[in-house]
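Re: weekly structure request thread

Next one in the queue (461 aa):
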Amino acid sequence: MKLWSGRFTKATDKLTEDFNASIATDSRMYRQDILGSIAHANMLAKQGILSAAECDQIVSGLEEIRAGIEAGQLDFTVEAEDIHMNIETLLTKKIGNLGKKLHTARSRNDQVALDVRLYLRDEIAELRKLLLTLEEALLKLAREHTDTIMPGYTHMQRAQPITLAHHLMAYFEMFRRDIGRLDDCTKRLLSMPLGSGALAATSFPLDREYIREQLGFSEVTRNSLDGVSDRDFAIEFCSFASIMMMHLSRFSEELIIWSTAEFSFIEFDDAFSTGSSIMPQKKNPDIAELVRGKTGRVYGDLLTLLTLMKSLPLAYNKDMQEDKEALFDAVDTAKKCLLVFAPMLMTSRFNKSQMAESARGSFTNATDLADYLAAKGLPFRDAHETAGRAVLFCINNQLSLEELSLEQLQQFSGLIDDDVYKYLDIRECISRRIIRGGPAPETVKTALQEADKWLEEMKNE
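Done, posted below.
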């Protein structure tokens, strides 16, 4: 018999049961549901709504159910619809009618709002650790490559020389902001909704602060309608996950391009690559490609939640049962991608000589020639044009700028002297860029020190 069957004269149709049930999705929240129920029972006893003996029996029963679930000794049923009613049904079977008292002054509406917040809090903690692990990996790689020269790109064209460390630290900064977004999302997540009831709270004298303290929330929700109908926290999490996955996807795209024979900047380890079923020579970057592909999946999860919530009147509507599949998928996908990405990156081998050779091609030092002339007093626009004419001359004669003789260079400007060759040296081009945020090795080393300090602070929070 359904726990809500009093008003009904007919049994639920099997089609309705199957369509209405969410236990296949929300069963993963059993720990959070039991944790919230224990806190609720303790509060009911504190307020004299349950006796101490009744509370002890309920709590013991819930703890035994949790142990039974984790031991694989208990099964959930579609007939009980969701994790909340499954736990209550199991409790009533275990301790009798006393189990029915647990739901006093509580609705499934505020119960599920609590469970999802508790679940997401736990998952955010795991995601944060994975992000910090990735940041640690990026710092380690960057320290190894402060002198590894490579071309920087704009429009996928070689632009100016940089170091691999500087390039890696760009992604470090992206993921640093992602951690900030995750922490900021957590602030709004930790608002405790239990006590909101179905929508209009309850006439029972609940102590919501006591529940908040037990569960480690920072505040209680301030409006019962909002408490049961708010899913902003889930949308905000999926927004964070989408931005983070976008960063992973950009990184993956570059690694995939770099691994091609046309670039040959990187080779993935065999353990993080796959082969072809027909072409024996192939070594495919499937892991990076899957991360790139799964990014669209997380975007879809965000769009699902936004679309789901966009037209819902207050307060709870059954549509909101659909929030969990998208949220859980975003959590699972983000975790899987982070879990594999760091070891894939750390086991990859970078072709330093090929990267440096590419940096020396395509006139990546042309800007430095323009800067050289500007430093000698020539207006930068004129210096830019002069350097451009020198590049054109080199293209027509299949030369590089540094291969030009002093006499050839001076035909473009009388300001050019033999000190120009130091300016045109690729390593010097990088080393001169000592401005904060620049690619000079010494500047990057300072950035690495600051990043190390930040990372330690984040680990200790």
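Strands lie at 149-154, 157-163, 191-192, 219-220, 266-267, 349-350. The chain has three domains: 11-104, 109-146+162-204+222-352, 358-460.
Next request, please.
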